[in-house]
Amino acid sequence: GENVEQHPSTLSVQEGDSAVIKCTYSDSASNYFPWYKQELGKRPQLIIDIRSNVGEKKDQRIAVTLNKTAKHFSLHITETQPEDSAVYFCAASMGNNDMRFGAGTRLTVKP
Amino acid sequence: DAGVIQSPRHEVTEMGQEVTLRCKPISGHNSLFWYRQTMMRGLELLIYFNNNVPIDDSGMPEDRFSAKMPNASFSTLKIQPSEPRDSAVYFCASRRGGTEETQYFGPGTRLLVL
Fold first, then answer.
1. Which of A16, B9, B53, B62 is 20 to 30 Å from the Cα of A108, by its Cα?
2. DSSP 8-class letter at B61
3. A98–B33 C-beta distance less than 8 A
């Protein structure tokens, strides 16, 4: 089955700096890679996703890159703000199968 | 759209009691997922259903856990008997399916077993 690894487990940045979170996956058949943000005491919510037919996707300050050959994908947050502080999860899935999540990255943005 | 609905939102029970968690997926979604989240183990998939049929229950911890989906709009996760180590937040998520692969999470049920 699919195995997703996520690094780092914790990340602290100064407000305005960029943050990068990286994930690797094991199943080359995986073709859908979402990123979720979970604030304290809340549910995970989708912030951006990418499919295997593209290498990069951007949405304002958030971008995701995918390297299918190396089987890794990354989340990039630019101009970080205190409200970006949360736990971020990457995930990978293929078709209508289940989705495997990474262990999460706790991002802290210091004002 | 009301989103995924879970009940109860909080549950406190004593060891040995039966616990039933409930989930109503988003209308029109054909897949439903049950997850458990703890600090130690992160977000774990317990079981998922496609078109009300259980597809993979390999994540269910042991026979004390069972899940059902009697129809497209309702699912239950039951723990009997409950143990303190079952204390966690249990999330239900649903997915439309087909080309729509995004999972939408419910608010979760915070379970505490004393």
1. B9
2. -
3. yes
In the three-class reduction of DSSP (H, G, I as helix; E, B as strand; rest coil), residue B25 is classed as coil
Whole-number Cα distances in Å, B108 to A30, A45, A55, A103: 27, 12, 33, 18
CB-CB: which of A89, A95, A98 is closest to B48? A98
Quickly count: other Cβ atoms within 10 Å of residue A71's Cβ: 16
Higher pLDDT, A1 or A106: A106
Bridge partners (DSSP) of residue A19 are A77
Q: Per residue in A18-54, pLDDT tens?
A: 999 999 999 999 999 999 999 999 999 999 999 988 8
**Which of residues 49 through 78 in chain B touch A, CB cutoff 8 A?**
50, 55-56
The label of the residue with tokens 């109860």 reads: B8
The span from the CA of A72 to the CA of A90, in Å, is 11
